[in-house]
Write a structure and sequence with these properties.
The protein is α+β, with helices and mostly antiparallel strands. Helices cover 14% and strands 32% of the residues. The structure holds a DNA duplex (12 and 12 nucleotides).
Amino acid sequence: MKRLPVEFYKQDAVTVAEKLLGKILVRVWEDGNETRYRITETEAYMGEEDKACHACKGRTLRTEVMYSEGGKVYVYLIYGMYWMLNVVTGEVNDPQAVLIRGIDNIVGSGKVGRLLKMDKSFYAENLSISTRIWIEDAPNVSEFSTASRVGIDYAGEEWKSKLWRFIVT
DNA sequence: TGCACGATCTCG
DNA sequence: GAGATCGTGCAT
């Protein structure tokens, strides 16, 4: 297996979110051991128009990495205790990202962040060259379902109703 | 300089 | 069903 090419991440977030299902997330720990996880649940966030996307507020210190080229990591702290793991997608100045909500049998973006020991140092980590986290190719999964996104009540009906959550079944 | 608010989870 | 817990963004 090999790492996904940069071109993979340059597609739009909805496409990447769907194709990431079944792919292998590799995490190398400080002691040199590595663990591989199968991605089972993702969510897409589509740019400044998407009221549920952090970039809808425009370019800030926190959202800056979403404006860069796809293939980078976007992490941020939520509720003061959970690091959320996202993958930036799309071209430069096209702020999109895919939230990793589930890996293996771990479902819940907060749990994923904790399990992977995510923290601020992973902000803007490049998945193509990083030695501690990357994603490897794997066959697409044939069975998956879609659903509306979670935890974005403030985004309004139009954006809440988008079926941009992808789950391996 | 201060404050309200979350893409959540766990416990009672 | 509520609390934990803190960086970020916007209002003073």
